[in-house]
TrEMBL record:
Any one GO cellular component localisation term in the record: membrane
Transmembrane stretches, start-end: 41-63, 75-95, 125-146, 152-171, 183-200, 215-239, 251-273, 293-317, 322-343, 349-367
Subcellular location(s) of the protein: Membrane
Protein species of origin: Cannabis sativa (Hemp)
Keyword match Transport: yes
A single GO molecular function term of this UniProt record: purine nucleoside transmembrane transporter activity
Signal sequence, renumbered to the chain: none
Name this protein carries in UniProt: Probable purine permease
Family membership: Belongs to the purine permeases (TC 2.A.7.14) family.
Superkingdom as given in the UniProt entry: Eukaryota
Keywords: Membrane, Transmembrane, Transmembrane helix, Transport
Length: 395
């Protein structure tokens, strides 16, 4: 019996050592894995931010080119902001979605039990209803922006668009429990001021060429569009975090395609109901750069706005709607600077100061995210990110 007890004790000791070694290995794996995932998250955020800045700047410049060279249709200017979603059709054709399963391994008496649980899906009726609401809101929002851009000078249009940041912060506070720190508040103030400076640009004198009635219409429409855009971003974040509860590129594509499809149908109804469709052929013939340039201008406006949407929805998914809007507002002063090269406008101190303040505001927001990243190992590297993203990074 003594030898048997010694053998049993030695076996238990070996099993304990193996357990410790496995535990150490798992602990080591989990200690390095979150760091790698944080880097991956930041890379994706960088890519999405670039897409937002690039898409917004190019699309805005092309939209300005459309109006300056003879474009007059507000509904067509609205349509091209959303009608580019068919470029994602190849993704649906060649990508076969696979069901995601969550696997749990439980070891009892040297037996491994695997449970495959399919993630719950929201009802089709609920998802369809949300896409309808988002699509109709976006359609109305884009139309209001088109009216504002038509009647207001670019500088005035930019300052009013900066107000979308305040609207987004307001809606995010109630819908998504957005938290505000001194660095985030500082960022919002600096980004807003950077856009406010653009009102002092010389082209603000162009408002004298527009009647007071049209100027007032453009002002009201742009304010309404800014408020609507802030609401749409907050609702999109709430929808993806609380309803879809998924985080993948396919979710980004689905949100863009389905809401754009609804918005495009609504805009087409408006285009034909307003009889503006009957003037499009004449508009194309009178376009200063020619028919081919007319078509290519509209085509690239549609494509670049889709690039912008990929970045916008991606940032909402990775971070928050407020961060996505911060990147968008950061890009507002970029447009006047790019206009120096493409439209031969003058580069003055106001544009330079606007760029400096915008960059400062963005750095302030990024620094707050840096503090959040290292304040706790259990927190998302991006402040106020979705709960699922926190779980993914720390898993």
């Amino acid at each position: 019996m003594g030898e048997a007890q010694q053998v049993q004790l030695s076996i238990r000791a070996e099993e304990a050592n193996e357990g410790d070694s496995h535990g150490f290995a798992n602990e080591s794996h989990h200690s390095t894995s979150p760091q790698t995932r944080k880097v991956t998250v930041w890379i994706r955020i960088g890519i999405y931010s670039f897409l937002v800045l690039f898409g917004q700047a190019v699309a805005t410049l092309l939209g300005r080119l459309y109006y300056e060279r003879g474009g007059k249709s507000k509904w067509m200017a609205t349509l091209v902001q959303l009608a580019g979603f068919p470029i994602f059709l190849p993704y649906y054709i060649y990508f076969i979605p696979t069901k995601k399963y969550k696997t749990n391994h439980n070891t009892t008496n040297n037996t491994t039990i695997t449970h495959s649980v399919q993630s719950e899906k929201p009802s089709t009726l609920l998802v369809t209803s949300i896409y309808l609401v988002l699509g109709l809101l976006i359609a109305a929002d884009c139309y209001l922006y088109s009216v504002g851009l038509m009647y207001l000078p670019v500088s005035t249009f930019s300052i009013i668009c900066a107000s979308q940041l305040a609207f987004n912060a307001f809606f995010s506070f109630f819908l998504n429990s957005q938290k505000f720190t001194p660095y985030i508040i500082n960022s919002l103030v600096l980004l807003t001021i950077s856009s406010v400076l653009l009102v002092f640009e010389p082209d603000s004198e162009e408002s004298s060429k527009v009647s007071k009635g049209k100027f007032a219409t453009g002002f009201v429409c742009t304010v309404g569009a800014s408020a609507g855009y802030g609401l749409v971003l907050s609702l999109a974040q709430f929808f993806m975090n609380k309803v879809l509860k998924k985080e993948s590129f396919s979710v980004i594509v689905d949100v863009i395609v389905f809401q754009s499809l609804v918005a495009t149908i609504a805009i087409l109804v408006g285009l034909f109901a307003s009889s503006e469709w009957s003037t499009l052929r004449e508009e194309m013939n009178e376009f200063e750069l020619g028919k081919v340039s007319y078509v290519m201008t509209l085509l690239w406006i549609a494509i670049t706005w889709q690039i912008f949407l990929i970045g916008t929805v991606g940032l909402i998914l990775e971070v928050s709607s407020l961060f996505s809007n911060v990147i968008s507002v950061l890009g507002l002063p970029i447009v006047p600077v790019m206009a120096v090269f493409f439209f031969h406008e003058k580069m003055d101190g106001i544009k330079a100061m606007a760029m400096v303040l915008a960059t400062w505001g963005f750095v302030s927001y990024a620094y707050q995210n840096y503090l959040d990243s290292y304040s706790s190992k259990n927190e998302n590297p991006i402040s106020n990110g979705s709960p699922q993203r926190v779980k993914e990074i720390n898993s």
